[in-house]
Specification:
Elements lengths: L1 E5 L8 H15 L3 E9 L25 E4 L3 H13 L5 E6 L5 H13 L4 E6 L11 H11 L2 E4 L2 H6 L6 E2 L14 H8 L6 E6 L8 H8 L6 E6 L7 H9 L6 E4 L8 H7 L2 E4 L8 H8 L4 E4 L14 E4 L4 H9 L6 H14 L2 H16 L1
Parallel strand pairs: 1-2, 1-4, 2-3, 4-5, 5-6, 6-7, 8-9, 8-11, 9-10, 11-12, 12-13
């Protein structure tokens, strides 16, 4: 099958770019001919809260595919849509969605591609709407969905919100592209974590719905040998979190790395910690969970969205009610007593179930069954 993907790819940074890159490679391994297009300009600077949209030391000139989509140039949207049909003759066009600001561009790509003979356009919905989205964005999302032939989601919670579109629920696969990294002992040495400390990791962009404040409140209820690594760029005002750190006298127990963590350093943080904490107040699914499980790190997460689908209780992780520091503190304090062999078997089963190979196979089977 000839497959097109119009979305964000490296050298743009972040989980969506990594997801799309892994998706393209998985589909190629399935034997499909994959053609990708990325953005010459993704978010206008006015809409981007971070320091840079690119991986460290890279620019759009490092893209391995045509960077022909400009988020504020309608002529580029139409041109890219036509190219998928006229030049690449794709049978299937995949359009990942995660932010309504990009919906007008993706909508135009879908419409133009179908006019040029692309048989199926599939929306791959990471979210039902933008995180922290405004009401007006739902109209843009609706118009995008109307331009697509089928809707695929990565979680049951997103599917529930998109029920009128009769979505098919797949899953968020685990990442496979990160290097193994240093040993647990060496990683802790690099980050200055003492041997007797229990290190919890909060990883990824810091945004209101991710509940870092709940985690800081929970840490304040734990003994002093419990430490917290916060690794990720802050997309909001840091002052409220600093207030909690000062209020609970956590200055010596919280290690801050408030910048984007490049791929080569991700394994250092993952190997150094004892568990990865996702105290989210709301969520659909999370690439951080996929990242933690890839590194075989237990996850302590809020029971929201589909965060719990890959958690085997007390083997690969634990679930807690959202927004409850007391419950989170208890889950972080209880020792992990499972046998190493049982834990290894649980991680192996999860990795097989949520592999990219399984995801690509399920997607293509779905599309091919619809075409018959």
């Amino acid at each position: 099958m000839r497959i097109g993907i119009a979305s964000t790819f490296p050298p743009y940074r972040g989980g969506i770019a990594q997801f799309n890159d892994a998706m393209a490679r998985a589909l190629e391994k399935e034997g499909h001919d994959v053609h990708c297009a990325t953005w010459s300009r993704q978010y206008p600077a006015l809409l981007f809260p971070g320091k840079t949209q690119f991986e460290p030391g890279k620019t759009i000139t490092n893209a391995s595919m045509p960077a022909s989509l400009d988020s504020i140039s309608p002529s580029s949207w139409k041109r890219v849509g036509r190219e998928f049909g006229e030049h690449h003759h794709v049978d299937l066009l995949l359009l990942p969605f995660w932010h309504a600001a990009l919906a007008p561009a993706l909508t135009s790509v879908a419409i133009q591609a179908k006019r040029q003979g692309v048989r199926q356009v599939v929306a791959v919905m990471h979210n039902a709407n933008s995180h922290d989205g405004k009401a007006w964005e739902s109209a843009l999302t609706k118009r995008f969905l109307q331009a697509c032939d089928r809707v695929v989601t990565l979680s049951g919670s997103v599917s529930a919100k998109l029920r009128p579109w009769k979505p098919t629920t797949l899953f968020h696969p685990l990442y496979e592209h990160f290097p193994k990294g240093p040993t647990h002992k060496e990683a802790r040495r690099q980050l200055g974590i003492s041997e007797g400390d229990v290190a919890h990791l909060f990883f990824g962009l810091i945004r209101p719905y991710k509940g870092l404040g709940v985690l800081l409140e929970a840490l304040g209820r734990l003994p002093s040998h419990h430490k917290l690594l916060v690794a990720g760029e802050c997309y909001e005002n840091w002052s409220s979190y600093q207030t909690l750190i000062d209020q609970h006298q956590l200055q010596e127990r919280v290690q801050l790395h408030l910048e984007f963590i490049p791929d080569n350093l991700v394994p250092v943080f993952m190997q150094a910690c004892d568990d990865v904490v996702l105290p989210y107040l709301d969520a659909s699914q999370s690439g951080v969970t996929a990242l933690a499980l890839h590194h075989e790190k237990r996850v302590v997460a809020s029971d929201v969205g589909d965060l719990g689908t890959s958690i085997v209780p007390n083997l690969t992780g634990r679930l807690v009610p959202p927004g409850q520091p007391e419950a989170l503190a208890e889950a972080l304090a209880v020792p992990w007593l499972s046998q190493p062999a049982d834990q290894a078997m649980a991680f192996k089963a999860v990795k097989q179930r949520f592999s990219w190979s399984a995801w690509a196979s399920q997607l293509t089977q779905l599309v091919q069954s619809e075409a018959q």
